[in-house]
Amino acid sequence: MPTISCSERDLLALIGEELDRDRLLSLLPLAKASFDGEEDGKLRIELQDTNRPDLWSCEGIARQIRARLRGALPAYPFFRARPPRAGGRIEVDAGLAAIRPIVGAFIARGVRVDEATLVQIIQTQEKLCEGYGHKRREAAMGVYDASAIAFPVRYRAARPEEARFVPLGFEEPMTLEEILREHPKGREYRRLVEACPRYPLLEDAAGTVLSFPPIINSRALGEVAVGDDNLFVEVTGHDLQVVALVLNIMACNFADRGWKIVPITAVYPYDTAAGREVTIPMDIACTLEVPLAGINQALGLTLAGKEVRELLRAYGVAAQLKPRGIVRATAPAYRADYMHPADVIEDIAICRGYDGFAPLMPAAFTVGGLAPSTLFADRVRQELVGYGFQEVFSNVLMSREEARTRLRIDAPLVEIENYVADTYAVVRDRLLVSLLRVEAASTKAQYPHQIFEVGEVAVYDEAAVHGSRTEDRAAALMASGEAGFSDMHSYLDALMYFLARDYRLESRDAPFAIEGRAAVVRVGDKEVGVIAELHPEVLTAWGLEAPAAYFEINLSALA
């Protein structure tokens, strides 16, 4: 979970009330936070929710507490009034569509940067880009002295050897290629761009480089100092929703410190989710309608509609009472976590206070135990560990590109209806994708690599009750200079022997496999798995540097 540090004085100033230490700490649960001690005279605060990046800052925590103490919604007029090109524009090059297609920005002006603000800007930038932005893959941020920038800013695709500028931390100009090779940040984040023929570059109208996103800012413009009062904040990424949310959060943080926010319009030569001219900050608020009866049933209470409305408003959520006992809740534009009625109910419970619920003792007593399917899966784990494979644990959500395009597959998937970002758009229907994710991040580790995962997948099935069926599966992957079909077959054979399952292989080509080096696994008349040597195009799409082979079996069908 994210942990931030901030001075108590700064936090209280942002809340706008004088509170003693005990009272302040008692309010932290409103922001899903807990006190984690002091370090260098500052409060260490642990955030206990990864779905609320708006809370990952001193300003965010103060905003949530302030809303509860005042019982009112925070007002941010820049979400409603968005004059086109009010603060200038960013012109986007068509070449970025296949590289890093989304950019957004705003200007914050009118207040001088002090030490506390500068520390919080840096901390929030790091938390949002490393955590929510998946180590800059989905969101990378730059903050600049806007007074030195000539508009319009240009976001273009540059050849690796074309542009030269002095990056932060260095004294001499370097090409983009040299930055990836010699700069510490270049070496750390080169994986994000090195496979592209051209690299993203931000320049102003005078040709001065702002940054090489998502790698490093230029020293000329990208070094904010105490005393600056006119800042340009930009974020690049692959998904407009993610980029807009990060910028919305930053805009609110600056506004809470008294800065005036001026939107910037990005002009695209290709379509985005919001058209070809996108002005940020933008209102991305989500609205859910929840029956009052459902709220009370979930909480075990008998709250009136007006009480629910006031609790939501006191938590910073716009709420209305609709006919037939419906509560209409709209999350603010700096939040993107409203995906299910349970999210609204959770806000009500937090604002009311968990200590206000009366505890109930269990009415029944049972003796628990592991399900047979779990015991069977554990046995498979033990066998694969014994063969020298290392277990990995992965998220079941992923992007359509990972689950289909990179595997050369064209088939329906179980999709998330209201996903936050493209990286969480579908549910995996095979464990191969999860293993390839891990292997793609392990190319610098010594070979051979042998990894496995035991977990659930959701298979698209129109005949099933909900249009899909859940299966427990086990998959193993090995990568090395000599990895091949026969090597994986030997491990599969050993596993099936110790599971006491007679099986046979039936040759069948797969889109992700080399022709003639794939087969399905059959037990009796059931098709229970697949074994394959992966196709070179799949290896290239995932950035793998060695041949790889894998097998995957359906434990639900074997148990």
Q: How does this model look, in words?
A:
By secondary structure, this protein is α+β, with helices and mostly antiparallel strands. It folds into 4 domains: about 70 residues, Phenylalanyl-tRNA Synthetase, Chain B, domain 1 (2-Layer Sandwich); about 200 residues, Phenylalanyl-tRNA Synthetase, Chain B, domain 3 (3-Layer(bba) Sandwich), CATH 3.50.40.10; about 70 residues, Phenylalanyl-tRNA Synthetase, Chain B, domain 1 (2-Layer Sandwich); about 190 residues, Bira Bifunctional Protein, Domain 2 (BirA Bifunctional Protein, domain 2, 2-Layer Sandwich). The chain has 16 helices and 28 strands. The strands form 6 sheets. Strands 4, 5, 6, 7, 10, 11, 12, 13, 14 and 15 form a 10-stranded mixed β-sheet that branches. A 7-stranded mixed β-sheet has the order 19-23-24-28-27-26-25. Helix 1 packs across helix 3 and helix 9 packs across helix 10. The longest helix is centred in the N-terminal third of the chain and has 18 residues. The two termini are about 35 Å apart.
Instruction: Note the total helix count.
Output: 16
β-sheet strand percentage: 25-35%
Number of domains: 4
Please name the fourth-level CATH homologous superfamily of the largest domain: Phenylalanyl-trna Synthetase, Chain B, domain 3
> What is the CA–CA distance across the termini?
36 Å
Largest sheet report = 10 strands, mixed
The overall strand count is 28
Which geometry do the CA atoms define?
A: globular
CATH topology of the largest domain: Phenylalanyl-tRNA Synthetase, Chain B, domain 3
Q: What portion of residues is helical?
A: 25-40%
CATH architecture label of the largest domain: 3-Layer(bba) Sandwich
CATH level 1 name of the largest domain = Alpha Beta
Q: Unreliable runs, pLDDT <50, ≥5 residues?
A: none
Nearest-integer average pLDDT = 92
- Backbone CA Rg: 26 Å
Kindly name the structural category.
alpha+beta
